[in-house]
Amino acid sequence: MMTSLYQHFPIFSIMVLFLGAFLIVLFGNVKPLRHAIALLAVTASLGFLIALVKPVMLNGEIIAYWMGARAPAGGYAIGIALEVDALSLFFGLLIATAVFVSCVYSIQYMRFDDNVGQYYTLFLMLAGGVMGLVLSGDLFNMFIMVEILTFAAVALTAFRNTAKGALEAAFKYLVVGCMGSTCILTGTIMLYAQAHTLNFAQLSAFIPGHMNTATVVAFALLYIGFSTKAFIVPFHPLAADAHGAAPASISVLISGVLTKSGIYGIIRLSYFLFQTMNLGTMQFILVFMGSVSMFVCVTMALAQHDFKRLLAFHSISQIGYVLTAVGLCTAMGVSSGLYHAMNHTLFKGLLFLAAGAVLQQTGTTDLGKLGGLSKKMPWTTALFLVGAFSISGIPPFNGFASKWMVYQSIYYKAVESGNIGFVFVTIIALVTSVLTLASFVKVSQSVFFGRLPKEYENVTEVPWGMRLAMSLFAILCVLTGLFPNVVTTYLTQPAANAVFNVANYINAMLGSGYAESVMGAAAPAAQAVTYVEVGLWQPVSWLLLLIIALLAVTIVAIAGKYDSVSESAAPADSKYDLFFGGEESVYSQVGGEDLFWGFKHNWRGYFNFMHELHSGIVNDYALWAVVALALVTLYMLIVF
Amino acid sequence: MILFNYIASFFLIILGFYTIVTKTNLVKTVIGLSIADYGVNLLIISIGFNPGGTAPIFTWGELNPASFFVDPIPQALTLTSIVIGACVTAMSLSLVMKLREQYGTIDTREIRRLRG
């Protein structure tokens, strides 16, 4: 077989990250050198993946790469393999982009911290772990990468170990994360006992024809293991704790990258390894867990007083959309789910970076203490608003395009299957979107607008490097919203096609005809995936409308200011002021928690119940994990 | 007799999880993680076992179709798993030490500043 140069690119893009991590251990004491190494590593990793877009995304090639050229002998995979299809590359590009922007942001964000060398080492280990996970073609290698990324993420969560709750969050994350990893390893080894291989393609060929109790239990274990990595309900408290305590550049990675690795694992398991997604019962479990995550986390977010903790709950709520859409098992569902996954990385990254900017300049993320920062930090405010519009699904930003696709695909699924349950899922998705908008109104009001507290009079804008990183995310948010057709044609549709063509994945690894010979008639045929035209709407005209509205607001604001200036020419002594009667009105900031008090009062039973439930005790969270594992195992044993 | 190994390994995993869920002492939580890890290691080794097999160490001349040895792959996996288990213990114990310094306790019921 002719090997082209680009076939080596997947391993390069993993290796440069780990190599960078080790080099920083050696040379990390020199400040310019460590920044140069970190930036070079993440840029090279992104570059290698971008070079793969043409062969994999456009030509539909699947790169099977055997480490040390140990090709399969006698139809048996004996080496360790990397396999890059459009799905892997899609997630890889997402991760590389987020890591690149986060690295640019870190340079100035971490400049006041100690031991920044260790920070970059862990940062690159985390990036390399996730990259290895999505590009790997070997189940045990996936487990190793999961462990590497869990360790790096735990260590980075506790990096600012004097920050409030950092150690506590890291410990909880470590305990439940390690329970998840134990589940993944147990599931992996149980599959090995059945199939005597760890190669993903070979397992995918073998297992669907040999389902028994052991493989079903293994499936449940792997599913729960990857769910802990995606932080879907009931593992969401860990995400909230970890995001709140970690530095903002790491929150971007936990929310934009780690959750994606969990979603990737679930897709690989349920569509490739076990190929059970065509069963309604299996779709039910994904859609159910997705919908519960959507709703529970958005209501939890409404009750938060901390900026980053609130964003963390929203993050999981958006992951609920992704899981729901992926669980529909329609071409459009998977495509829209991946599109939303991409947008989630972009806008959530932007919001976390804005929160980090606020934290760095003011020293707090408490919504009750902040206010009026738009006067002091106009750039951050504008960029935050782009992110807030995107996550709330306001056209023409990217959140609208992908959420609209998700609603449509759920609704079509309801029509197609005649199942009334999907109508409820559509309603939950819409209500969640409304509540998201509500809580972002609350955040912008209590952080960026209203009156500036006295102690923040001297706050300044963040340095240009941090603004550059935020602008990169903001530009991507706008671009992916303006050109949804380009995104779906070149990124999400090839990935969705890959999801539905399992036979191609197996044959690319083990030689053509292998899937048919092992699985016989049961081999999933290469389906031609068709798409329904999505959203006949014009993002560009919405952009024009938005610009006109903004201009109108600006004109009114400037005109209003002119009046106030002329009035303030009056003598400063208050006894010359116009007297209307009564006493001088006292300005009072509407606190973040008061804005929706009516709604929260009517739902106080629910909110109090949820508050009691999220007790912060690690035993409770571990118990939830065990209960979830038991329920999923039981459900799958009954179903299969 | 290998069935006994399987039962024992799952018993260990469940015992580890039970420890994590019920014990309120952070050090015992760490012990629970380790017990679950040992359970998995026992499971991996048992899966690779062939009754009567020899150690899978051969040179080119010795290896012939009649050689009968235990499956070497699970042994390699176990080594990796043991290393990871040691890392888990080291890292979680260091976090426990730091928590003791900051909170003055290692009781999980009192380490709950992040909640709700």
Descriptors:
heterodimer; A: mainly alpha; two-stranded antiparallel ribbon; 71% helix; globular; B: 116 residues; mainly alpha
Task: Briefly summarize what is shown.
The complex is a heterodimer of chains A (640) and B (116). Chain A is an all-alpha fold.
Return residue spans of chain A where pLDDT drops below 50 for at least 5 consecutive residues. Answer: none
The chain pair forming the largest interface, with residue counts per chain, is:
A-B, 46 and 42 residues
In terms of DSSP E residues, the strand content of chain A is under 5%
Q: Provide the spatial order of strands within the biggest beta sheet of chain A.
A: 1-2
Would you list the SSEs of chain B in sequence order as H and E? Answer: HHH
Using only CA atoms, what is the Rg of chain A? 25 Å
Distance between the termini of chain B: 49 Å
Which CATH C-level class of chain B is it? Answer: Mainly Alpha
The domain tally of chain B reads 1
Please estimate the helix content of chain B: 55-70%
- And the CATH topology of chain B? Helix Hairpins
**Can you count the helices of chain A?**
25
Query: What is the general shape of chain A?
Result: globular
Characterize the structure shown.
The complex is a heterodimer of chains A (640) and B (116). Chain A has 640 residues and is mainly α. Chain A has helices at residues 9-27, 31-51, 53-58, 86-109, 116-135, 139-157, 166-195, 200-206, 213-230, 236-245, 248-273, 280-302, 307-326, 331-362, 378-392, 398-417, 421-448, 464-482, 484-500, 502-510, 514-519, 539-567, 597-602, 604-613, 618-639, and strands at residues 63-66, 81-84. Chain A contains 25 helices and two strands. A two-stranded antiparallel ribbon of chain A has the order 1-2. The radius of gyration of chain A is 25 Å and the shape is globular. Chain B starts with a helix and ends in a 13-residue tail after the last helix. Chain B has a single domain (2-51, 71-103), classed as Helix Hairpins. The model of chain B has no long low-confidence stretch (mean pLDDT 89). Chain B is mainly α and 116 residues long. The chains are: A mainly alpha (640), B mainly alpha (116). The interface between A and B is large, with 46 and 42 residues.
